[in-house]
TrEMBL record:
Name of the featured protein: OmpA family protein
Pfam families: OmpA (PF00691)
Protein's organism: Dongia mobilis
Keyword flag Transmembrane: no
Signal sequence interval, chain numbering: 1-21
């Protein structure tokens, strides 16, 4: 057998062997949907999905807005394009809200565990602390004279950040019941905002009750009733009640 024929046979044999040994590089498409679905499983998967969807839709809405803003003000802007931008922005906001809800569900067990661990280190004789913040008639603005009370509540919360916080807002009986209910809500919001701006930790569960008019004779000014009570109960003594 001449040399050329031997080389030809050897080459053919090597090609056949390599073809048999080479892995199948054809992509397996059968599990694509299953794997995609797995990435969306559970609260963490839902969080990732909605964050990505919110980012995508908000980016597209922003592109439409920039396109509309670039048009001369006297030109007629494509109405369907405007509607598409509004729709995308609304859907982005909805995805963001659902992402936050999924995040909270993901974190709730961790928060509960932290609350339990914190309760092990809270002295059992530490009861709830109530701090009252007083307001002028018809006002929801926090007076400068109430800064010490706000500081006391903030210091206690900083010491026991894992706690139950209850905020009860009251008014006196001057004015209508509905107006006083709305005023109580504004007072509660003012206190919440002031605590947040001061960096007070509100990692605890917080409940807000806008009580409105306190009990008493109608149409009577009463400074003691124009107040917001901040009740902080460390979890270690939570079972004692508030």
């Amino acid at each position: 057998m001449n040399r050329s024929l031997k080389l030809l046979l050897l080459g053919s044999a090597l090609f056949a062997v390599s073809a048999c040994a080479a892995p199948n590089r054809e992509p397996d498409l059968s599990n694509i949907q299953a794997n995609v679905d797995k990435t969306r499983e559970g609260d963490f998967g839902e969080l990732l999905y909605h964050l990505d969807a919110a980012a995508d839709k908000s980016e597209r809405a922003e592109e439409i807005k920039q396109s509309i803003d670039a048009d001369a003000p006297y030109l007629y802007t494509n109405l369907p394009l405007r509607q598409e931008g509004v729709r995308l922005a609304e859907e982005a906001a909805e995805h963001r809200a659902r992402a936050e809800a999924a995040l909270n569900r993901f974190l709730d067990p961790i928060r509960a565990r932290l609350a339990y661990l914190e309760s092990l280190h809270v002295p059992q004789d530490v009861g709830p602390q109530t701090t009252s913040v007083y307001f002028d008639t018809g006002s929801a603005a926090i007076r400068d004279s109430e800064s010490a009370a706000m500081t006391d509540a903030g210091n206690f919360l900083s010491q026991y950040p894992i706690a139950h916080v209850q905020i009860n807002a009251y008014t006196d009986t001057v004015g209508s019941t509905n107006a006083n209910k709305a005023l109580a809500q504004r007072r509660a919001k003012s206190v919440m905002n002031a605590m947040a701006e001061a960096g007070v930790p509100l990692a605890a569960d917080v409940s807000v009750i806008a009580v409105g008019e306190a009990e008493g004779e109608d149409n009577v000014e009463n400074q003691q009733n124009r107040r917001v009570d901040i009740i902080v109960q460390p979890h270690g003594t939570y079972n004692k009640g508030m």
